[in-house]
Amino acid sequence: MIRKIKGKIKEKSYETIEDIAMKATKWIGSTGSLIFHTIIFAGAFSMYIFGISLDEILLILTTIVSLEAIYLSIFIQMSVNKHDIKLHSVAEDVEDIQEDIGDIQEDVEDIQEDIGDIQEDVDEIQKDVDDIQEDVEDIQEEDEEEDIIEKEEDKRIEKIEDMLGRLIEEIIDLKKDQKQIREIKKDKTKLNKKKSD
């Protein structure tokens, strides 16, 4: 239990130190930092007016600048490391997206084949509907006995029309899926362009 608490405290303090370092790195590259350093350097040389020798001023200033350079190099390396981690993460995401696009392309090809098969089925059903319609017209010319047959044919037509309606709905759904796949491809293309930029 105590180890967990110590681990959490270490993790929190590490995150806090890292946040401070990142904020310091951002600030050092700002206009405010430029103004601050200019004032400090001008102020250091103004100590000469108060009787401090130029050698002592240069010694103090050189020491401060050396320490600052050490910290700056550490901050810069931390920033580089953090960006490197982010770049690796993005690269992995891109690889995953490329794999997904490959899978989607295969699915699109399968869907296109299915659409072709469904279209053939629709054509065959339409031929059947036309044939049935002709039969219905023939049946209408016959007597009462043929009226019973006509009713059975009407039921078949209704079933076929229901099947047609379902097939048409499936075609519409497939077209929607195809449109979504195209949008995903466009998003992938945009993401690749952003990465290349």
What layout of secondary structure does this protein have?
Layout: H1 2-28, H2 31-46, H3 54-140, H4 144-196
Broad structural category: mainly alpha
- State the distance separating the first and last CA atoms: 49 Å
- Give the oligomeric state of the chains in this entry, treating copies of one chain as homo and distinct chains as hetero: single chain
**What is the strand content?**
under 5%
What order do the SSEs take from the amino end to the carboxyl end, as H and E?
Answer: HHHH
What is the count of DSSP helices, taking H or I runs of 4+ residues?
4
Biggest beta sheet attributes: none
**How many beta-strand runs?**
0
Shape: rod-shaped
Share in helix: over 70%
Poorly predicted tracts of residues: none
- Roughly how many Å is the radius of gyration? 39 Å
Explain the overall architecture.
This protein is 93% helix and 0% strand. The chain is mainly α and 197 residues long. The protein has a domain at 86-196. Helix 1 (2-28) packs across helix 3 (54-140) and helix 3 (54-140) packs antiparallel against helix 4 (144-196). The longest helix is centred in the middle third of the chain and has 87 residues, at 54-140.
Summarize the structure.
The protein is mainly α. Helices cover 93% and strands 0% of the residues.
